[in-house]
Every structure is written in C-alpha cells, then in structure tokens.
Request: fold
Amino acid sequence: MLMSVETIFLNAPDFPRQADVRIVLRFGARFAAHASEWDRELDGALSRSCALPACTCASGEIVDILLPPPPPNQVRERRAVVLNLGNPAEMTALSLMQAGAKLARFLESVKESRVTLLHDWKETCAVARHELSGRLLLGLQLGNYRFALMGKQDKAHAIEIFVSGEEWDVDSASRFTSLAEGVCLARDLVNYPASHLHPDNFADYLAPLAAAGVAIEELQEEQLKQLGMGALLAVGGGSARKPRLLLLRYCGKNAPEQPLALVGKGICFDAGGLCIKTTRQMFPMRGDMAGAAAVAGTLLALARQQANVHVVGILAIAENLPSATSYKPGDIIESASGRTIEVYDTDCEGRMVLCDALHYAATRCNPSAIIDLATLTYSVMQGLGPVFAGLFASDDKLAQTLLAAGERTGERFWRLPLDSAYDEGLRSPVADLRQHAKTDDGDAPYAAAFLKHFAESVPWAHLDIAGKELLEEDAPLARAGASGFGVLLLEEWLNGQ
Reply:
C-alpha cells in the first residue's frame, strides 16, 4: 500500500522552521486561540481572506493564503492553509475524516509536503476533542492512499506533518493511524487483479497481520474434505487453484475468553461458473473477495492498536470458474453442517462458501456473535442504490449497534427483513435446502434466509456489501478503485463492545 503520511508530535507549539505550510484550523466562523494570535501577527491576513464572499464556513472548506516575506532575521512558512472543520455543534466523525481527505488532496495539488498544524480548540464539540484530532489524521491518510500497482506517475504524495497543542491525543491518533493501515490493506487486496491475488497465494498477502501478532492458519483441500466442506469445495472445484479456509485470531491482553467471529466471502474471481456472467458483469469481479478483505483489514487495525478485544476471522477463499470439473445446476451438495443443498445457479457461489464458513465459526469457535460480510447479491444494489448496504440480523441488539456504528463512520446500512416466510422459497423436494429461491425477485432476503440456517442459532448479522467494494469515480474518502468498505464499521463496532 502507498499511504505516505508521517506524523511527528511536538511537545510544544514551536514549529520546525523548515516547514513550508502552516495548517490553521477554523471552526465555522471562528478561529482557535493560536490562530487568532497568528492572525494578529499577520495584520489580519487570515481573517480578511476568510471574510471574502466566496467563503461559506462549511466543513472541508480550504482557504489558501500565500504569505508575504517575513521581517528581516525572521523565518516563517510561505503559505497558510485555513481548513474549516465546520460548526463545532454539528461536527461528526465522518465530516472530520472528509475534511482531512480534502486537505490531503489539496496539499498534493499544490505540491506541498512539509506542513505544521496546531490543535488548541478547547470548547465543546459534537465530537470528543481527542477524537477530533485522530479522525482528521485518519481522513488525511485515507485521502492520500495510492495503490502500488497503479501507473508509475501516480504515486502517493509524501506528507510530513508536524502537530502540536495540548488537545492532541497521541493515543487517539495512534488508534486512527492503525485504522488507516487496516482500511488501506483492504483496499490493496481488492485492487489486486486475479492474476496477482488468488487462492494459492492469498495467505501471503496477510503478512502484515502476522507481523502485528495475528495468528494465521490455512486449511487446504485435504483438510476441507476432512471437515466435510462440500459447498466450499464445490465452488472452487472448477479452478486449478483449489479453495482454502483461512483462520485468523487476535486476542488482546485482557480480552474476553469468548471471541466475536467475523466471516468474509473471499471469491478471488467470479466468472459465474457454468452459469457464466457477461463481460460487463465479470470485469469488476476481482472485487468479489471484498468481504474477506474487510475482515483482514479489521484484524490488522485491531492488532496494531493492541485493542482489548478477542476476534476470530474466517475467510472462505476460492475462484468460481467454468471448467469440466465445475459444479452444475441440479447438483446436490452436502455441506459441512450435514445439510444437503440443491444447486440452482452456480453464480450464487457466495452463499455456498459462506455456509461452510459460518458453520465452522458457530460450531468450532464458540463465538458470542457472528458477523459475515459478502458482496452477495445484485438485488441489494438495486433495492438500496449507492447510499446504503444491506443488513440482516437474527438479533435486534446486534443489528442496532451495527447500524449505529455505520452512521458514525459513514458506512451506512439499512436493515432488511429476515422473516421465516422466506424459508418457504428454499424448500426442495430432493435436498434440505434450495440454494436459490423459486423466484428471481428479492434474492437478497432469500440469500440471508439460506445463510441463517448455518449460523446455528448464534446471534448473527449478515452484511450484504455488494456494490460498495469498488468506486467508479473519486469519493470523499477514496479515489476510484477499492474503497476498503467495512473496516471502519467493524473497527468502530468491535472497539465499542
């Protein structure tokens, strides 16, 4: 990953003389004490520039001021950049991150790399003051992300930022720097094409997790057979690269003995199998492992933070390709749970690999709750559009806390029905379950109803993140390409448990 932001914390408000830019924080129509004092030294240059008619005082607004030469025998920055964080009473974690990302892009556009920033706002905010600094730095780091395999001219802009002021919280900043690493790892994994990332080497890309203290175990084909994982094996059977189940575990020092389980769909490339996709449908399918990427990124963030949580991650890794050995419509597959599944559509492979992974989590990890993430259905994209991802849950408290975490981080979900009436559409005359309902309408709730059986009565939430994994154009926190969606939500939720 390329995310070239180095943050240096200073113990005093004395900034290094060789810095070229000073970032001045503005809160709506007001400066903090230090900025007001500096404005007086500059004969009101800051306040005059911010009083121009074009200035709106909106969050994320940037005012660029080229400073006159300093008096003789004095040294100061050549540029002042006023970054508005908006009305303190209306500030949110998301607005702070977006302001930080805008700052990163602005610094890149003016080719400035060495900057200073003082945070000395002491009044009440809608966001805790210590979190204010961390969220701002998180946005700066996410906005500066580049994928290493992009064109040689598109490199991450190096930013060296010196920060000071008693309102900076080093621990909070460290938490959010670790979170940025997790999001950027998830972005990298989704950005890698299937020529580079596949079942044979997926575990190799998780080296940062191992270095951070996450235990990693890889179950290969023979072990999957011993566990009876017929659904995962069936999906991966059409590829020369056989499926894997990757087991990740992180446990903080004083964490509970009982873990929380995260399950991720990891289809490294989805051609649809024998029910093959069109070219347009197939082209973005390198991102069909975004659920697994989000789980991996979350575990990295937690381990880097040394968070006081106990989490297991289970990644179902496979390729869904057409060949003479692919599974077929009409096949009856026995899953690890012993339930038999009648295959209707080989392009419904996500629920197949997840059912074995969910059963493993529920029966072998003793979790207090399970959350799975998957780019699962087109219907959730059609139903919710670009604003929300879909959430299904067997437990109301679990659903409510996830929805709240999504609102705080900007990774928003809408709860969809998990009703027993959907089970009727999954009845089969020849197997315990149909893989796909008898109708094409409402596939997302039918898929959730199918997966519910394999959570084995453990409190469970299913996050259908289809359409959120890849951005066709730049967004406030990410450039076109992989978004890293899900990591912000999961880290927020897990640290709140």
